[in-house]
């Protein structure tokens, strides 16, 4: 009972980061000052910049950026003569010394900023893996947990005209109670991995908005606008000039105005990814965005885009930079990865296993690629820990906050391959209802497991399926589960009358390694998996999408086999250097065939 009460209280708590201001969701449409570039860094494995020798938090840690004032003063660190790292970017691939490092690195960047009267200023981080403590001019301004979602803190009162120093302690130690937990199959890239910027706003500004088609409708737009500041009660106009639309709404005492209107809009689709310029104009602030409108729903075992059944021809992608390696963070990275997906014939990508940087979503919007976006509730999370649940809820909320206006995102996924238990079901049901309350329009899914009910039948009956719109299912027939031929005799059954996306299948091949189709790690073996898998998948009557594992090879500490893996998961259809393996063409041929239908 007590546990239930705690869970309930936590579920009602608005945000895990008490000091944090609401996310300024659209940073593209406002005035920003870029803080990317070289930051000074101090590697601090013992966290002695944070704790004193009695392991108590210290009052004059590295965040003070102190300098000796006399020749006798003892100060044992100095940002300005320490090394530097590029931001955005992970630390692991910028210097060999930090390749396997998991711990704390301090970042410092100095800047000048002449604040104009009647403005507010925020510091915005696209992502910091995993735990970030942020200080400005020696004062703590906030903490953020979670490696893949954005956050911002207001610095209006602290910022000065010149000589500001922003210090961030970034700690990527894995923890049993964290999200993700200790065990994953990807590299734990640490650091300020995404863009950092200052955002300048008027005193009362458009903090956030949600402008999308109402579920089930292709004309009716609903949502809300939210102002922050002291002039909360204002008229706000939504303008879509190209559609000849303009309508005013009035925000209430909390600064919120529900939005509700009908408009004749050309719908967004992979064939025609139409985006409109949308203006959100209050008296005190104006923001612009590029928004697409489309409907997404399910009917029986079908997925309907704009009312028409579709098949999701997809592929999974990790957020790793092609060729350069390390975390992807730029528009060019997104263009390369999504360009390869297009080349494959994909109209859909599963962005595994955490929210990717915003460029990916913005580019997908522009290119007409549907997106499955997920949070790192992966494998064996602490299902009974209310703090873990709150952390997962917060990451889910931040993912939805950033991308809720992107037409490309059609599916939010709450988990990947999580083992059945009552506690896990309660945890994931909580996430499902949280996602629905934040975004009633999109489809919800999770990558689940299945099990054999006899030698030739796989059953999908995970109790979580009842709460999802789309069933996601990972299977490795031909790799972890028998040889490729095994797929020929397999049948899939489902307890639910719902669409299935085969969210993972595949196997490893080292590019350029050739042999016969039964020799592990060869391109021929991987090719054979895809041939047998595709034949099997074609026979599943309720299959409405596939996202095989995975577009490109990616780094993983779990994959040490010398000369083959060398700490890479080799299930990519493309090598880390951009070379296409044989299986790529097998999948491409099938996707072309599907495209003709
Ligand atoms: C899975 C996981 C994925 C792994 C993959 C593999 O089921 O969801 O994160 O990387 O298998 O290669 O084993």
How is the largest sheet built, in terms of strand order?
A: 21-22-23-24-25-28-30-31
Number of strands: 33
The backbone outline, from C-alpha atoms, is: globular
Main beta-sheet annotation: 8 strands, parallel, barrel
The oligomerization state is: single chain
Distance between the termini: 55 Å
What are the segments in which pLDDT stays under 50 over at least 5 consecutive residues?
1-20
Helical content stands at 10-25%
Per DSSP, what share of the residues sits in E-state strands of 2 or more residues? 25-35%
Q: What class, by secondary structure content?
A: alpha/beta
- Could you say which small molecules are bound to this protein? (2S,3S,4S,5R)-3,4,5-trihydroxy-6-oxo-oxane-2-carboxylic acid
Q: Overall pLDDT, averaged?
A: 95
Could you explain how this protein is built, in words?
By secondary structure, this protein is an alpha/beta fold. The protein has 7 helices and 33 strands. The strands form 8 sheets. Strands 21-22-23-24-25-28-30-31 form an 8-stranded parallel beta barrel, surrounded by 4 helices. Strands 3-2-4-9-6-7 form a 6-stranded antiparallel sheet, with no helix packed on it. It has a 4-stranded antiparallel sheet with strand order 1-10-5-8, with no helix packed on it. Helix 2 links the parallel strand 21 (about 310-315) and strand 22 (about 350). Helix 1 (about 1-10) packs parallel to helix 4 and helix 4 packs parallel to helix 5 (about 420-440). The chain is globular. Residues about 1-20 have low confidence and may be disordered. Bound molecules: (2S,3S,4S,5R)-3,4,5-trihydroxy-6-oxo-oxane-2-carboxylic acid. (2S,3S,4S,5R)-3,4,5-trihydroxy-6-oxo-oxane-2-carboxylic acid (GCB) binds near residues 474 and 569.
